[in-house]
Amino acid sequence: MAEKLPPSPGGGITPLQQMLASGTGAILTSLFVTPLDVVKIRLQAQRNSLLQRGRLSRVMAVLLFPASGKCFLYCNGLMDHLYVCQNGNGCTAWYKAPGRFTGTLDAFVKITRNEGIRSLWSGLPPTLVMAVPATVIYFTTYDQLRDYLHTRMGSWNHYIPLLAGALARLGAVTVISPLELIRTKMQSQQLSYRELRVCIQSAVAQDGWLSLWRGWGPTVLRDVPFSALYWFNYELVRTWLCRQAWLDGATFMVSFASGAISGTVAAVLTLPFDVVKTQRQIELGDSEVHPASKPSSTWLLMQRIRAESGTRGLFAGFLPRVIKVAPACAIMISTYEFGKSFFQKLNQEQQLRGL
After folding, report:
1. What are phi and psi of 191, to 5 degrees?
2. In degrees to the nearest 10, what's the CA dihedral of 276, 279, 281, 282?
3. What is the pLDDT of residues 27-50, one digit of tens each?
4. Pick from 98-102, 203-207, 217-221, 262-266: least confident
5. What are the residues facing 80 on neighbouring strands?
6. Residues near 126 by Cβ (< 8 Å), separated by ≥ 6?
7. So what's the pLDDT on residue 58?
């Protein structure tokens, strides 16, 4: 049965169709996860006084008081987005009066009742700007690499998802990193495109082209292992579920369940890298607002977290990460596989008509 099951229903479709399928998945995932982040940020906002007491609590809450001219980290389960606020400007849609919430459900009800249901998606535009192109690059690259490696590796085909997932994420992170840095700079300094071009030229002249990839290292440390583990487990779980259900190919629900399970496993195993990555991104954003502050190295951040909270500190935020990543992965991969199946059937029908 395992030999008959294809790696994915991606065969017989074009890269453009893969891009359309992954882009649709990214949009649907963002639509689902954005309200969770809006509620999370509002809950964090009412705990400002507590967050100011310890560095690690700020790392876990990933909120650095936009009203004071700093930044917060916005995560949608697919990608992380650093949002910088200069003296509170530009944050009115995301950062409002904290309110008096007793919990997540209470926050959902009160935000919807007092501000309207649209406010739950107030952070959607900047999410889509980064998440859609990043996800399109990532998923399309993975499929292309996996298919290529299947023709080259022979008996090593069980490890193809591991390798293809790692390489695809590495490529996506490398392409997106300069865009993320440029967007952060525009937010923090309110630059026009002409001023931004001059700023980038000055930075490149001073520090070289590699200055556009600041923060690339810690991003890779978290995202590449996550991607490798995710795709490896996804292919295993999908094959196993199809075998148990006597299916020749994965259904929407099989892909959904496989995505949720594999996303949860990968999220747990890479949680220490996520903690360090969060602190690193916050320090990078803080340095954009206050250039005198110099970001710490990844290794120093790990040592600092361990010194302040022990090894458990590197695994903080377990439940929020799993709650977000599991459904995001499930929605993304099931939508993507459904889209590929749709285009595959469409192409087959067109071929039959042409005969």
Report:
1. -90, 145
2. 180
3. 999 888 888 777 766 765 554 434
4. 98-102
5. 75
6. 74, 81, 83, 183
7. 39
Distance CA(349)–CA(152), nearest Å, equals 30
CB 340 within 8 A of CB 9: yes
Tokens of 254: 């099989």
Residue 81, Ramachandran bin (φ over 0: left; ψ between -120 and 50: alpha; else beta)? beta
145-195: pLDDT as tens digits: 998 898 887 666 788 999 999 999 999 888 887 776 666 565 555 556 677
Neighbour tally for 192: CB within 10 Å: 9
pLDDT of residue 27: 92
- Tokens coding 215: 């923060």
CB 166 within 8 A of CB 196: no
| Neighbour tally for 233: CB within 10 Å | 22
Q: What angle, rounded to 10 degrees, do the helices at 160-189 and 216-244 form? A: 140
Tell me the residue type at 131. Answer: A
pTM of the model: 0.74
Q: Pick from 270, 267, 265, 259: which is nearest to 235 by CA?
A: 259
